[in-house]
Structures are given as C-alpha cells and as structure tokens.
C-alpha cells in the first residue's frame, strides 16, 4: 500500500470504517482513496463525499465497480468535486452512470482545476456523454483539460459519437493517453482515429485492444507511422484480427521514432528533459505487441495497482 493511501476492495464498509476514512480525509493525510467495489449506504457515501470535498491532499480517488450506483450518488460526487481542488485522477470504471449521470457530473469535471486523468470505462455512456467529454479536451492550451482518458467498454456510443471524439482528440492541446479498448469500433472508426492521431500534437498512447479491427485498420496505422510525423509512441492492437507481423512492424516503427527523437535532441546539443517512458510488459497473447502498464505521465499520477 502506498504511503498516505487507503485501499479497500469489495467489502461492506462499516460505520467505523467510514468514520476513519472521513477523519483521515479531514486531516489531509490521504493522497489515494480507493473503495472499489465496496458496499456502503447512501448516508455513508454522502459522508465520504463530504470528506472528499474538504480534503486538500487527496490526489487520486477510485470509486470503480459500481460505487456510484445511482443518480443521487452522482449528484453527491459532483458537489464534492466542485468543492475539492486537489484530485488529479478519478476512477469511475464500472459505474452505471448513463448519459444522465455524466450530465450531472459534467460541470464539476470540466471545471475542476487539477483533474487530468479520468476513467469512465464501462459506464454505459452514449453519444450525449461523449459530446460532454469532448468539452474536457480543449484545443486551447490556456484552459486546463484531460491528459489521460479511458472510455473502455461503452458499446452504446455510435459512429457519430466516435467521430465527434476523434475531432476533439485531433485538436486537443493536452491529451496524451486514450484508452478505447473493448468497444465495437471496427475498421471505419479506426480510420477516423488514425486521422486524429496523425493530426494530434500530443497523443502518445492509444489502446485499441479488442475493438474489432482487422489488417485493414493495421495497414492504415502502418502507413501513418511510416510516412507521417506523429507523437504516438504506443499503439495497443492486441485481441484483434490483425496479423502478428503487422503489429510488429508498427511497434518497431514507433520504437524507431522515439529513438530518433532522442538522437535529434542530443545532436542539437541543447538541454532537453528526458521523456518519461511508460513501463512495458509483453502481452499475454502470442504476438509481440506491448502493453502499457502505467500511465507514464509523471508524478502528478499515483500508481494504480489494481483496476
């Protein structure tokens, strides 16, 4: 467990445990609070939200796996986020928010002064929610926005919604990591995303694992990284109908591009801060595709060891 962290998974939280959590938040001694998959009453959830609103130390909040289980809880969380100024990373993966829940949270999320990483995977979102999320990816660098966004497993989003997101990604001034794994995207939407990646000045990681892609999509991405300058460093294509050879070619080209950037900086003789590289681990499948294990976005993110 990390210093200054409270991590509880899948338990029914007692009143005493809730009281301890709230006291720790009030004392500003907690950097990470994770109650993923825990059961707590609406009253106790409200108490935790009040503690979050008062905390000046909390940097990461994990409410994954159904903790935000109703519209009233979404409203309580929104109120807490509007008062809080310290949270940088918010996990809501597996919460049945629906579009209505994101409407409730939208103002708090899009105006939060510190939030840079948001996980809305498996939240039953649709096109209305995507339109709101696009507002969190501003093209103007003077306005704060997300640097890491997860929208995994939201199958209700249509082609229209993904097209709107692709446009926002293309023009985002800050987004560096985009996780869209396990959405039924297919080759057409992947083509839109390839255009967005080619246009983006910031995107470094794109996760398209298990999104229904074929060699057709992979060839488009291969042509892009082979012929056009891009910031992309990691493209996850595992669990798709894509040949290991194509995946390897793309991976090799992305690695070469990163090496070339480092060499150019060294040749200029000017001081350039070293690029923070994500941690890597071979994917469990038989191909050589690499899988991102950490966000790699620096000290502003605390390590999330289990999703």
TrEMBL record:
<feature type="region of interest" description="Disordered">
    <location>
        <begin position="255"/>
        <end position="285"/>
    </location>
</feature>
<keyword id="KW-0677">Repeat</keyword>
<dbReference type="InterPro" id="IPR032675">
    <property type="entry name" value="LRR_dom_sf"/>
</dbReference>
<dbReference type="Pfam" id="PF13516">
    <property type="entry name" value="LRR_6"/>
</dbReference>
<feature type="compositionally biased region" description="Acidic residues">
    <location>
        <begin position="255"/>
        <end position="264"/>
    </location>
</feature>
<protein>
    <recommendedName>
        <fullName>Leucine rich repeat containing 73</fullName>
    </recommendedName>
</protein>
<dbReference type="InterPro" id="IPR001611">
    <property type="entry name" value="Leu-rich_rpt"/>
</dbReference>
<dbReference type="InterPro" id="IPR052201">
    <property type="entry name" value="LRR-containing_regulator"/>
</dbReference>
């Amino acid at each position: 467990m990390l210093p200054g962290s409270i991590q509880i998974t899948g338990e029914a939280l007692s009143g005493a445990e809730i009281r301890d959590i709230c006291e720790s938040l009030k004392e500003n001694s907690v950097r990470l609070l994770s109650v993923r998959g825990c059961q707590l009453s609406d009253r106790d959830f409200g108490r935790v939200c009040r503690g979050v609103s008062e905390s000046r130390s909390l940097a990461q909040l994990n409410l994954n796996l159904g903790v935000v289980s109703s519209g009233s809880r979404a409203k309580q969380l929104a109120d807490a986020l509007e008062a809080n100024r310290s949270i940088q990373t918010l996990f809501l993966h597996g919460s049945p928010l629906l579009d209505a829940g994101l409407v409730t949270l939208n103002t708090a999320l899009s105006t939060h002064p510190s939030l840079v990483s948001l996980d809305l995977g498996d939240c039953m979102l649709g096109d209305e929610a995507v339109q709101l999320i696009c507002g969190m990816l501003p093209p103007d660098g003077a306005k704060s926005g997300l640097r890491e966004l997860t929208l995994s497993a939201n199958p209700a989003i249509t082609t229209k919604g993904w097209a709107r997101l692709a446009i926002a990604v293309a023009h985002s001034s800050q987004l560096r990591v985009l996780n869209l794994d396990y959405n039924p995207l297919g080759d057409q939407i992947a083509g839109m995303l390839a255009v967005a990646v080619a246009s983006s000045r910031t995107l470094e990681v794109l996760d398209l694992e298990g999104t229904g892609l074929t060699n057709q999509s992979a060839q488009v991405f291969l042509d892009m990284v082979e012929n056009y300058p891009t910031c992309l460093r990691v493209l996850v294509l595992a669990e798709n109908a894509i040949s290991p050879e194509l995946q390897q070619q793309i991976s090799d080209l992305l690695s070469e591009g990163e090496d070339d950037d480092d060499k150019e900086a060294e040749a200029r003789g000017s001081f350039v801060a070293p690029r923070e590289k994500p941690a890597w681990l071979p994917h469990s499948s038989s191909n050589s595709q690499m899988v991102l294990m950490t966000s790699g976005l620096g000290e502003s993110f605390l390590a999330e060891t289990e999703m």
